Request: fold
Amino acid sequence: MKILVVVDVQNDFVTGALGNADAQAAIPAVKEKIATYIANGDAVIYTRDTHQKDYMETSEGKYLPVPHCIEGTEGWEIVDGVYVDGCTIIDKPTFGVETFPAFMNEFFAGEEIDEIEFIGFCTDICVISNALIVKAWAAPFQPFITVSCDSKCCAGVTPEKHEAALEVIRSCQIEVR
Reply:
């Protein structure tokens, strides 16, 4: 079984407060990748960056002072045409899903997982955080699992940060395509 984790493909990261042309350009590849996983009968999990109205008072808000993905707003919504009905959505209040290990153990108990692939936005913040959490979780329990990232289906805050994140991802033994 393969698992695709679609990280924060939300309006605010594509056309909204933190959007950019690279994220917009990646959307067709993101949709194609999701369709391939669905057609193969593999699992697709979405994460959704989820902040509250007090975002600017949070630790993240102090370092990234751009209100974004405020729950219930248009910017918080997954980009139109990206979500596939019936797939799991995990709302996360910060960069990484700290509960990924427990979620993976419960959701995929007894399943043999061959690969967990990451796509989405921002490569240099949330994609890298979640990929590293899953890589660390999988290493002792499933040492032969492939953790990967499709760079064509990702975008960073800037092209330079995207490339820097991909280099760190590679150095942590996560396959970059």
User: Anything to note?
Assistant: The first helix runs from residue 11 to 14.
